[in-house]
Design a protein that fits this description.
The two termini are about 20 Å apart. The strands form five sheets. The chain has a five-stranded antiparallel β-sheet with strand order 10-11-12-13-14, with no helix packed on it. The radius of gyration is 19 Å and the shape is globular. It has about 325 residues and is of the alpha+beta class. The longest helix has 19 residues, at about 5-20. The chain has helices at about 5-20, 65-75, 90, 105-110, 125-135, 155-165, 170-185, 215, 240-250, 265-270, and strands at about 25-30, 35-45, 50, 60, 200-205, 210, 235-240, 255, 260, 275, 280-285, 290-295, 295-305, 310-315.
Length: about 325
């Protein structure tokens, strides 16, 4: 199939999905041979007002975690820390699960959802209050760190905070420095930075608006560590095409247009299956998952996101 035929095929698939599920909008991008090959879009960035384009930016929910993991391993590459370091070293207080006081909690455990920190913990907005929370017995499950999988949004907030502590920069600034600017990507954890004409409202199944334009105007970058930790589980705002560029890093050994942005060894480490999830068939990586024998392939890596009416997915 040539590129023109594929463009038509993807557009038809997007149109059919929109009609079947009654979506407000869809963006899609396809990758071939390690590059973004095609894109399609349909619907509204703001219902009944602004048609969506390929450049509109959408809050992609948990697909955010893959970018936070990329930032984290890039800081490892720069020797600011190791994935197997005890997080107490960076948080500044002894962080231990009281049920397992002799087992250190590591950065790797934050990324692979085995930290034993309660996944339903409420986010904090300062390092002082985060430290207090992580000293509380109520902030932990009875699980042994490193042994039990519990999908954990809060742990990604902690991981992002550690990145900010060791680097002296926000996760947003780090993502821009390491990936967005070198790759020509326009995206942000702080939507106020983005042109207003590229912002997108999220709608639930009843067409109630979430993440309105007015709210996005006030969402600026972090002022200090932990200040915006809630965004690191699901707050990335980006288009499908730009997100697909990030995924190309995994297909090109960490390179963009032949230029290395992250070591190939770090990319391979992120894709290693660390353990099998409770379903008995899904391999957990950092943070993507590996599913064998899918779509006629030997296996795929993927991650999904679902929040406030948006559903996001990548697979390669």
């Amino acid at each position: 199939m040539n590129s023109k035929e594929f463009d038509l095929s993807l557009a038809a698939a997007v149109k059919a999905a929109s009609e079947k599920y009654g979506t407000v909008a869809i963006q899609a991008a396809a990758i071939e041979d390690g590059r973004v090959f095609s894109e399609a879009h349909i619907g509204f960035a703001e219902l009944g007002k602004t048609p969506i384009s390929a450049d509109h930016k959408i809050r992609v929910a948990s697909l955010t975690k893959t970018l936070v993991a990329l930032v984290t391993v890039k800081l490892c590459e720069l020797s600011l820390f190791s994935l197997d370091d005890n997080i107490s070293k960076y948080i500044g207080v002894p962080v231990r699960n009281p049920a397992h006081p002799d087992v250190p909690i590591t950065i790797r455990m934050l990324l692979d959802h085995t930290s034993s920190i309660r996944p339903d913990a409420e986010y904090e907005e300062s390092l002082f209050s985060l430290r207090a929370k992580l000293l509380s017995r109520a902030s932990f499950t009875e699980d042994c760190p490193g042994k039990v999988y519990r999908y954990n949004n809060f742990a990604y907030g902690v991981c992002g905070t550690i990145c900010e502590i060791v680097s002296g920069k926000s996760v947003n600034a780090l993502a821009r420095q390491f990936f967005f600017e070198p790759m020509g990507i326009r995206a942000s954890f702080a939507p106020a930075e983005l042109p207003e004409e590229l912002r997108t409202v999220i709608y639930d199944k009843n067409r109630n608006a979430h993440f309105p334009i007015s709210e996005q105007r006030a969402m600026i970058d972090a002022a200090s560590p932990a200040n915006t930790m809630r965004r690191y589980a699901g707050g990335l705002v980006i288009s499908a095409v730009d997100y697909a560029k990030l995924i190309c890093l995994f297909l090109n050994d960490g390179c963009h247009e032949g230029k290395p942005l992250i070591e190939s060894e770090r990319i391979r480490d992120m894709q290693k299956v660390l353990y099998i999830q409770p379903d008995g068939k899904t391999g957990q990586c950092l943070p993507m998952r590996r599913l064998e024998s899918c779509f006629g392939e030997n296996g795929i890596f993927y991650h999904s996101g679902n929040a406030y009416g948006v559903y996001s997915l990548y697979a390669y």
